[in-house]
Amino acid sequence: YPSRGHNNCIMTSKYNIITFLPVNLFEQFQEVANTYFLFLLILQLIPQISSLSWFTTIVPLVLVLSITAVKDATDDYFRHKSDNQVNNRQSQVLINGILQKEKWMNVRVGDIIKLENNQFVAADLLLLSSSEPHGLCYIETAELDGETNMKVRQSLSVTSELGDPNHLAQFDGEVVCEPPNNKLDRFCGTLYWRECKYGLSNQNMLLRGCVLRNTESCYGLVIFAGPDTKLMQNSGRTKFKRTSIDRLMNTLVLWIFGFLVCMGVILAIGNAVWEREVGFLFQSYLPWDPPVDNFLFSAFLSFWSYVIILNTVVPISLYVSVEVIRLCHSYFINWDRRMFCNRSSTPAEARSTTLNEELGQVEYIFSDKTGTLTQNIMTFNNSISAYDILALSQRAQPLDFSTWNPLADRDFCFYDASLLEAVKVGEPAVHEFFRVLSLCHTVMSEEKSEGELVYKAQSPDEGALVTAARNFGFVFRSRTPSTITTQELGKAVTYTLLAILDFNNIRKRMSVIVRTPEGRIRLYCKGADTVLFERLHSCSHDVMNITSDHLNEYAGDGLRTLALAYRDLSEEQWAEWAERYRGADKAIDCREDRLAAAYEEIEQDLMLLGATAIEDKLQEGVAETIAILSLANIKIWVLTGDKQETAVNIGYSCKMLTDDTTEVFIVNGHTVQSVREDLRLVARERMMESAHAANSPPTSVLESISGEFALVISGHSLAHALEADMEQEFLETACACRAVICCRVTPLQKAMVVELVKRHKNAVTLAIGDGANDVSMIKTAHIGVGISGQEGIQAVLASDYSFSQFRFLQRLLLVHGRWSYLRMCRFLCYFFYKNFAFTMVHFWFGFFCGFSAQTVYDQYFITLYNIVYTSLPVLAMGIFDQDVPEQRSLEYPKLYEPGQLNLLFNKREFFICIAQGIYTSVVLFFIPYGVLSQATQSNGVPLADYQTFAVTTATALVIVVSVQISLDTGYWTAINHFFVWGSVGAYFTILFTMHSSVLFNIFPKQFHFLGSSQNTLAQPVVWLTIALATVICIAPVLAFRFLKLDLKPQLSDTVRYTQLVQQKKWKPALGRLGRGGSRRSGYAFAHQEGFGELITSGKNMRLSSLALATFASRHSASWIDTLRKKKHNPHSTPPTGDICMFSPCLRGFPPGSPVSSHSPQTCSQANWTCYTAPRCV
């Protein structure tokens, strides 16, 4: 047997009671920020350099470490709970010839286990015997690959008779197999027993996590246990993805640390100069501390003291706040009922909490077609036989098959009677055609009652084809390992199954070899036409030409096509090939390659029977979603395994390709040279035409013409285009196109295309798919989205976000993604601003305190500033803020572009924030310093003391940053109000409490300054000073924002202002607005009549989304002035050239109609007055 070293105990948890504290702390201190603050804490424990008490750092550090530890402990508790539940499941193990109950954790390699119906498989087992005939058993693999269809497994014939425990106890075979791996679809091994060896494959294995179905019992030999099982081998950690803001923030933190060091050096130099020039005068009554014996050493200690004091420019609370905000954004996605699919009861799910803001920066979407853009619910549509008998769907009345076929599926719809008549009259070619469909498959049949057949297919395509054959009289009834039973036109027929040549993504075909009841041996094959046509006999070329024409016609209609063929084999041919096949099947090394070579050998000289066409309809809302995402400057690439014609047709159906597309370039070369020529010809033509039309310089042609062309490239051409010497040329050409469709591509090629764009483009990529063949693409992209559809849940398990419909993608990006990016950027800008405003006051104070590292604020204020006084308001803004409502985000996709261009938080915005923070610190220090140095109380006592200055500065700081966040908040909720004004109230409450007699009596050594805050804030001059500092800090910000709003407004400003004017001016008339002719309610334009026309016209839709942007950028007059004039004088006539800002005009006038037809009138979309204009947008 394989090694018996491992038992079957699994452990997915990370900690236990003893290891939790040290291991968790070790993990947390691997974060640079935590290590940095631990270093500061150590410095603060050194009395000679610490101006602050140790608790100013240890309190926030312990708080952060505790929150993270509690979260980790909670997660690990649930992992322990799950592990215990699984490990303590009971199984029946054969011990000394007797079946005994054992816990799963005690099962070992080499044990023989008995499984009963509906039981989970405890370990990876070699199936020895079964209660079903021929050693068959049926399993469900949903926990492994998400597929709920039953699959069949079969024991070796030599062990299938070991059904008795006594016989099994005598089993002494030896299994030699491959080492543990994570490949669910393959197993290679050999059984040595009774001086013979037998090849083992995946068909003989029951994997842990499967469930036994429709089988009374079976016995299996444990091959892999515990962590060696394929289920556990596939449970490795997913690659951690970081956002661009994360990477930028890490860079900025390093810069801030460098800035902190520079400030420390400047103040240390100042300390050295002051101690040398001035400090010696005080040595007689203020000597240096014992370790200090000269001014240089004093400067050295001063440097470290200021590093401690100024460390709050990078507070530890920043990282905690970011994680809290991301977690809340993830819950918003999970709770969004507009992304909930009622049909499948599937909500959207944010499976990752670290990528939310990157959803607002996506530039490239890579999408699968089948099941992602389409429904993946297959319907047999058309077929063609070798005798050119066409079944063209005329969409008349569906045929009633039940009148002559009692086993017909009543849900099957077909419309052309000619094919049915051909079956009834006994056309041999048509009979053979449907015989292939009834025999060449891996479908399992379950007969719940007499005549009630339920097919379990591994793919919707197979299910549709077998169901079609069933309705045309060729009914698949049942199978055994060696037979297939059908009912052909009412007659039961049993075929001997000699071999199954299974399908895979490389072969793109499958075959079965059967012996007919008459004794003939025949190979039936179905697969992609490009693959089968290469293997046809020369006499089939005429039929192939006819079939190719019809295949192109079907593909043009967006149908999925499949070719069918057969080959007769002689007994000698079968015997020779079967020997080679058995040798390849038993091979231990390179078994798959040897089997592929054997398959290739027999699948030659085929006779073409015809082809099938299966309809896979688009999902609801795909066309609208793609059109809207395109307006948001998001480029969509479709990567599919379908035929080129099918992919192109789907491209037109979903509006990736439109009538506005100048040209669709097709790259279909089979050699490196031909592909290069195609790409260069495409690029050259595009450059010449665009440069001529736009007068662009050659270097900017590709960028200037983006959106006018489309590129379609096949899989064999893509293989050459992805080579190192051509990938850059392919990428430039593809990125210059509005739409790119890659057809006939493999899963690996999908991932390579995504990686190519990631590597060479500074852009965020998103991959979306629904099947196992999309997993590599989903994991490669910055963001992976899984569709929970018809192909299992492997794509969902590998994804960062999941939902059930492609149309939800526009809401995920344009609403949740844009808001997450906006909120995170505003949060970071304000956070850095408030901390520089807080910290830099110490820097200026250093020049007035002899560079002694004395702090301006008391240590309690320093501790509580980022934890209590300013943490909650900025947290509320980061969680709830929004610039425009969600419907406006969908209505104006151009609002998405700032995220793609990274405009809201970058190095420039960062420097603006810290510059504002430094300016605020200057005002907060020098205004109180200048006023209080000459001020006196009402009784004539001077106010120029340290505590008065500290309280005044701290109070002014809290008020200024609170006013600033009030200006920064664009969307107020009750929570925002409570946090902002509650934080101000908390500051005064804590301030008065710390200076009260109660705390002084309890802790006289900690709270020295009794009543200082009460005395300070009782002085009118202090409040005037605070008010003056606040005005000087805030007034420039208000002035700058008003000027920017008036001179250079953003599209979001325009949308927000027009909405405000709308609400104020037309609120009484809104009740008269109806829903018009709209039938949908979940889209941005749902309330507008004529939304379909808007979508189908690319130009109109682009103008609609850009109308406000165009209006905002007019240079003749500011948009605010124009709107203000219209608001105050609604009957005035603006200058010629004004436009209606809302489109389409819904009074019945078509877009672009002359102004004389509606001047002035009311635009019914929003009750907006439409003034004289040469064209109505």
Automatic annotation (TrEMBL):
Superkingdom per UniProt: Eukaryota
Topology in the lipid bilayer: Multi-pass membrane protein
Alphabetically ordered keywords of this record: ATP-binding, Lipid transport, Magnesium, Membrane, Metal-binding, Nucleotide-binding, Translocase, Transmembrane, Transmembrane helix, Transport
Location of the P-type ATPase C-terminal domain: 796-1049
Residues annotated as catalytic: D368
Molecular function terms, GO-annotated: ATP binding; ATP hydrolysis activity; magnesium ion binding; phosphatidylcholine flippase activity
Cofactor(s) of this protein: Mg(2+)
Keyword presence, Signal: no
Residue sites binding ATP per the record: D368, K369, T370, E462, F503, K526, R560, T640, G641, D642, R744, K750, N773, D774
Transmembrane segments: 36-65, 252-274, 294-320, 827-848, 860-880, 910-929, 949-967, 979-1002, 1022-1043
GO biological process, one term: Golgi organization
E.C. number: 7.6.2.1
Sequence similarity: Belongs to the cation transport ATPase (P-type) (TC 3.A.3) family. Type IV subfamily.
Protein name per Swiss-Prot or TrEMBL: Phospholipid-transporting ATPase
Native species: Pygocentrus nattereri
